[in-house]
Design brief:
Helices cover 48% and strands 16% of the residues. By secondary structure, it is α/β, with parallel strands linked by helices. It has a domain of 210 residues: Deoxyhypusine synthase (Deoxyhypusine Synthase). The longest helix is centred in the middle third of the chain and has 20 residues.
């Protein structure tokens, strides 16, 4: 399939806006009663998340991969950070890439079936069914981030990743940005794989002729301190990879998570962490045997907007 329209004729990717909706609540009530293979788990997950977020003694984690930030689910994550539902966020470098890029330009709806040679010729990169303009993702991000790094370097030459996120968030001046609200609300976003993405590359380039360092061990100190002080802990873990593992890894040191909601489209049969169930984490001590735990096998852009819309109506 060819791309048949230029960017000004293409449909933009728009963030999902969270608002109270009794209709969503009614849908969820029916899902809880239908005995579906995954539907009733969605209802159970929302109930668990509500208890977790309202538990004032719980240290709550949000974990997700970067690809979702290229979609309208960015708006769902932004709203959760804006509402301060979580105390810590763990994600990947691409979350910075896409959050900043979309603060400065538009992404577009595409298709999995597009002709990728044509996609490249037109100046886009394809992320699943999303079209990412190279002008925005590469050129604009590089120009603005290098400017920000010069400003930051004038004040300090060593930062943890969560401190870097706050410094970028203070400067982005875009209220549709996840990191804008993380900086405003002082919610740490920890990125253990900070070099694996566009922003990581910008950091490397900037460091070539300057005394400038990212101290990931400072992130680990923060996680250590927060986990050891926690009375209880919970996590909403979307997808897998390093974000998921870092979240459950640190929670083993307090005896495991007390609440855990997994949402993933991966399967456990290949032994991957992304498909591993809460049962497996119990064997490692990363989730307590007595924890409230729900595993949803499903695709996040389909399920997460419904879950968070219902939660927003309850908070």
């Amino acid at each position: 399939m060819e791309i048949v329209a230029e960017s000004d004729l293409m449909k933009k990717v728009r963030d999902f806006e969270i608002s109270k909706s009794r209709d969503c609540e009614k849908i969820l009530e029916q899902m809880e009663e239908l005995g579906g293979f995954q539907g009733n788990r969605v209802a159970q997950a929302v109930d668990t998340l509500e208890r977790m977020i309202k538990d004032e003694g719980a240290l709550n984690f949000l974990s997700f991969p970067a690809s979702l930030v290229a979609t309208g689910v960015r708006g769902v994550f932004r709203e959760m950070v804006k509402r301060k539902w979580f105390d810590l966020v763990i994600t990947t470098c691409g979350t910075l890439d896409h959050d900043l890029a979309r603060s400065w330009g538009d992404y577009y709806q595409g298709s999995f079936e597009l002709n990728d040679k044509e996609v490249k010729k037109r100046g886009y990169s394809r992320l699943g069914s999303v079209l990412v303009p190279n002008e925005v993702y590469a050129e604009r991000v590089e120009e603005k981030v290098q400017k920000f790094l010069k400003e930051i370097h004038g004040e300090k030459n060593e930062l943890a990743t969560y401190e870097l996120v706050w410094e970028l968030g203070k400067r982005v001046e875009a209220k549709d940005s996840i990191i804008y609200w993380a900086a405003k609300n002082k919610i740490p976003i920890v990125i253990p794989g900070i070099t694996d993405g566009m922003i990581g590359y910008q950091l490397w380039m900037f460091s070539q002729d300057k005394d400038f360092r990212i101290n990931v061990l400072k992130d680990e100190q923060l996680l250590n301190d927060r986990v050891w002080e926690a009375e209880r802990s919970g996590a909403l873990i979307v997808g897998g990879g390093i974000s998921k593992h870092h979240t459950i890894w640190w929670n083993q040191f307090k005896g495991g998570l007390d609440y855990a909601v997994y949402l993933t489209s991966a399967i456990e049969l290949d032994g991957s962490l992304s498909g591993a169930t809460p049962r497996e984490a119990v064997s490692w001590g990363k989730i307590k045997e007595t924890a409230e735990k729900v595993f949803i096998w499903g695709e996040a852009t389909t399920i997460l907007p419904l879950m968070v819309s219902v939660l927003a109506g309850r908070m």
